[in-house]
Amino acid sequence: MGDDSGYGNCDDEFYNGAYDDNDEGFEEPDSDGESCGSIGEAFSCKVIRKESLLAAQKNDLQRVMDLLSLKEHHARTLLIHYRWDVDKVFTVFVEKGVEQLYKEAGVSVVESEYLSSSHVSSNISCEICYEDVSANETTTMDCGHCFCNECWTKHFIVKINDGQSRRITCMADKCYSICDEGKIRNLVSVRDPQLAEKFDNFLLESYIEDNERVKWCPSVPHCGNAIRIENDKYCEVECACGLQFCFNCLSEAHSPCSCVMWELWLKKQEKESESVDWIKKESESVDWIMKNVKSCPKCHKPVEKNGGCNLVQCVCGQPFCWLCGNATGLEHTWTRIANHECGRYKDEHGQEIERARKELWRYTHYYNRYQAHTESLKAEENMKEKLHQKVAALESREFKTKDYIWVLSGHYRLTRARQILLYSYPFAYFMFGDELFKNEMSSEENTIKQNLFEDQQQQLETNIERLSMLLEEPFDKFDEDKLSETRMKIINLSAVTDNLCKKLSNCIESELLGPLQQATHIIAPYRSNGVEKASEL
Ligand SMILES: [Zn+2]
Ligand SMILES: [Zn+2]
Ligand SMILES: [Zn+2]
Ligand SMILES: [Zn+2]
Ligand SMILES: [Zn+2]
Ligand SMILES: [Zn+2]
Ligand SMILES: [Zn+2]
User: Fold this and answer.
1) Where, if anywhere, are coiled coils annotated (predicted)?
2) What is the 311 CA–ligand 6 centroid distance (Å)?
3) Ligand 2 centroid – CA 179 distance (Å)
């Protein structure tokens, strides 16, 4: 999914002219962004509905059965072992040969002659229960092991109830051959038809649960669909039920945040939300520390600090410690301030507390912005209805041009970019914080990268707010000239914003995370068209 040149939702009459109000924070579209032809972002994910699950599974089974001339249950055993990766089965077949392929998966394909020969004698002694039973009361598996039906049935029921339906092995000592699902089904359904049905469902669901390319849609209540992807699992998809999610971690779509970062962020939020009041209180005290003016512990008048000394004196005559705010005596030496308990140990403790406060302050900075943009996104999503009304109002007027696609595509661009922007805050929190990359970047490197990132992020933010403002304007009441001007601005801003999103994502991928070689922080690529909608299988 490496396509970043696709250009979606753009107007037919894309405006390429210069934007006249080109002041700071505004950026011209890159030359490659000016082409409008939709090269298209590869569509590679499918929605598998309940009804099509069986067909999807059958299709993969058939491919393996055809290639290796196998029975269905052997093909299934192979595919379950290789996690429904048909290509993997073919690769192992080519590279290691058919025997090794079967052995690794526990498939026994024995000549039928051998199987029938075990039925020659009419009475057989079962080696599990030591009963003598007639041959038609026994079952022989593909591995050649034969036991009485009673023993097999008990064995299968235990395994199915144990959740091991997909890999029920033979009862014989040291035999790891997988039992024939048809024989299992027949024996179990005699004793417990419902359990046999359950067994079938387990086999069917294996197609999803043992398959790295297929996952259940995480919707609640569950829509019943699964999503199958063809390429990279680090992507964002939209199920037929409308839910958008990250295919890799099944959380909400969160790029340009990595899955690991997003998980940490959610945990952090959970932890901090337990004590929102505490945060507020702490933020205030952080504020207090940061300020150059503090209030006197005696008369509460503001006192300013001059120079580096942490013993300050109020106009009322009260000396106090700048670090902790407590009243002290006046005399002090290099090591000790009179009547004050800020000893060496406590000073270190104080630094520790200050570090914790700074860390909290830092978190609050990112959290507040993340939260603010989340709120904006909600408000802007609700804006859509109003925009439809504006378009309707415009269409009823007698203008020469009747093309108002730019209104809704501008709105689409706004919400899409807002999404990128809001998730860029948790990303930045972890990218430039101590938690993940402290040992992989020097603090100088960190600062350079942070500046680079923030320049782009702030540029994006500026343009998003402009686009938002323009779309809020009552342009349905504008005269034709002013309307045309607004239209051009919105079209141009949409393109610029899309490019800035692209740029920010590229920066994250190649300049921020790239050099760290963090295989754990793979980010779903930016798509102009947004999260990919899964198409019907
Ligand atoms: Zn037996
Ligand atoms: Zn066996
Ligand atoms: Zn769904
Ligand atoms: Zn994820
Ligand atoms: Zn005072
Ligand atoms: Zn001093
Ligand atoms: Zn103190």
Assistant:
1) 370-397
2) 6
3) 8
Assigned domain for 349 exists = no
Positive or negative torsion for Cα 243, 245, 250, 254: negative
Q: How confident is the model at residue 221 (pLDDT cuts 50, 70, 90)?
A: confident
For residue 256, whether the previous peptide bond is cis, meaning omega lies within 30 degrees of 0, is: yes
pLDDT digits (tens, 9 = 90+) for 169-219: 999 999 989 999 999 999 999 999 999 999 999 998 888 888 888 999 999
Domain annotation covers residue 216: no
Instruction: Please tell me whether residues 73 and 139 are part of one structural domain.
Output: no
Tell me the angle at which helices 86-96 and 72-81 cross, rounded to the nearest 10 degrees. Answer: 90
Ligand nearest to the CA of 332: 6
Residue ending a domain, among 105, 139, 169, is 105
pLDDT of 350: 66
Catalytic residues: 309
Peptide bond into 218 cis (omega under 30): no
| String of DSSP letters for 13-54 | T---SPPS---TT--PPPGGGG------PPP-EEEE-HHHHH
Residues 409 and 505 in one domain: yes
ipTM for this prediction? 0.53
231-270 in b/e form (b: 16+ CB < 10 A) is eeebbbbbbbeebebbbbbeeebbbbbbbebbebbeebee
Please indicate, yes or no, whether residues 94 and 163 belong to a single structural domain of this protein: no
Q: Are residues 97 and 125 in the same domain?
A: no
Q: Are residues 460 and 399 part of one domain?
A: yes
- Say how many Å lie between the CA of residue 301 and the centre of ligand 5: 6
Mean pLDDT, the chain, integer: 82
Most confident of 274-288, 327-341, 377-391: 377-391
Give the distance, in angstroms, between the CA of residue 91 and the centroid of all CA atoms in the same chain: 30
DSSP string, 98-148: HHHHHHHHT-----HHHHHHTTSSSEEE-TTT--EEEGGGEEE-TTS-EEE
Could you tell me if 83 and 100 lie in one domain? Answer: yes
Least confident range from 362-366, 449-453, 458-462, 471-475: namely 362-366
Residue identified by tokens 């000073």 is: 347
* 3 is a domain residue: no
Q: How many domains is the chain partitioned into structurally? A: 4
Mean pLDDT over 443-455 rounds to 93
Domain that holds residue 62: 57-105
User: Which ligand has the nearest atom to the CA of 129?
Assistant: 1
At 11, the pLDDT band (50, 70, 90 cuts) reads very low
Same domain? 470 vs 389: yes
Ligand with an atom nearest the CA of residue 219: 3
CA of 473 to the centre of ligand 2 (A): 76
Whether 472 and 329 share a structural domain: no
422 has pLDDT over 90: yes
Read off the amino acid at residue 63: R
Give 271-290 pLDDT, tens digit per residue. 776 655 555 665 555 555 55
pLDDT digits (tens, 9 = 90+) for 490-524: 999 999 999 999 999 999 998 998 888 667 888 99
- Residue 246 located in a structural domain: no
